[in-house]
Input
Amino acid sequence: SNTAAQAAGVAKLANRQDLGSILLVTSSAHSYRAARAFRKTGLEVVSSPATRPADLASPRPSVRPHVVLQRIGNLAPVGYEYGAIALYWWRGWL
Output
C-alpha cells in the first residue's frame, strides 16, 4: 500500500530468513525515501537507484513550448517525493 508498509513486510521476511541487509533497487527520485524507510525497520540497506538509458542522455537544450512543458511535467515525481518525505518524517516512518 505504501513504501513504509513494504519496508515493514520486507523486514519481516528478512528476519524470518535471518538476513540483516538488502539491496534496494528503485527509481532515483524514490531511492532516498525508500532507503530511509527500510533502514527504519532495522535493515542494513544498499541502495541502487535505477535509471533508464534515456535518463542518462544529454538532450540538446530547447525552448520550444512543448519541450519546456514536458520538462516541467517531468518535475512532478520530484515534487511528489518531497511531499512524501515530509509526510513520512511527520509520521515517524523515516
Q: What stands out?
A: Helices lie at 3-16, 28-40, 53-56, 65-73, 76-91. The chain has a mean pLDDT of 88. Residues 76-91 form the longest helix (16 residues).
